[in-house]
Amino acid sequence: MASTLVLVVVFVLDLIAFALAVAAEQRRNTATTVEDAAKKFRYCRYDSDIATGLGVGSLLFLLASQLLIVAVTRCLCCGKALRPSGARTWAIVLFITSWVFFIIAEACLLAGSVRNAYHTKYTTLISSNPPSCETLRKGVFGAAAAFIIFTGIVSELYYVSYYKSNDAITPYARDTGVRMGNL
Questions:
Q1: CB neighbours of residue 41 within 10 Å
Q2: Could you give the 3-state DSSP secondary structure of residue 33?
Q3: pLDDT tens per residue, range 88-144
Q4: Helix (H), strand (E) at residue 147
Q5: Please, what is the end-to-end C-alpha distance for the chain in angstroms?
Q6: CB of 95 within 8 A of CB of 76?
Q7: Which of 153, 155, 141, 128 is nearest to 68 (CA)?
Q8: How far is it, in rounded angstroms, from Cα 62 to Cα 21?
C-alpha cells in the first residue's frame, strides 16, 4: 500500500519548488545603462539578484522530492522484482517519464540561475556604442515551473503504480512449472 505520508511530503516539496520557480520568474534581473559621474563611459547597472537564489532553492527542493521517491521505491531496479501486471508496465513508463521531466526541469532551473547571475562588465571606454546589458530571457523559470508540475504529477503516479504492482495478487496459486516426471 502506498504511504499517504510520502505522497504528502512529495507534494509539499514539489509545491515549494513550483512556488520558488514562479517567484524566480517574477524577480528576474533587469539592467539599465548608466553613465558614470565624470561622463567618461557608460556601463550596465543590474537590479536585485534574488532570482538566482530562488532558482537554486527550487532546484534543491525538486531534487529532494525526486530523491525521496527514488529512495522509497528503491529506484525500481533494486529490491524484489515487481509482479507482472498492468501496474508494473505503468510503473516502468511513469518512472522513465518522471526522470525525463525531472532532467528538463533541473536543466531549466540551473541554466536560468546561471544566466541570471551573469552580469556584463563591458563599458564604453573604447567605443561610443552603449554596452549590451544581457539579461535572462523571459520564460526560462516559467518553463521550469511547468516541468516541476509535470514531474510532481508523474512521480506520484509512479509511486502509486509501483506499490500497486508490488501488492498485486499472484494470478496463479499453484505451481506453474512443467513437471519432467510426467513425460
A1: 16
A2: strand
A3: 899 999 999 999 999 999 999 999 998 888 866 665 555 566 667 777 788 999 999
A4: helix 140-166
A5: 43
A6: yes
A7: 155
A8: 10
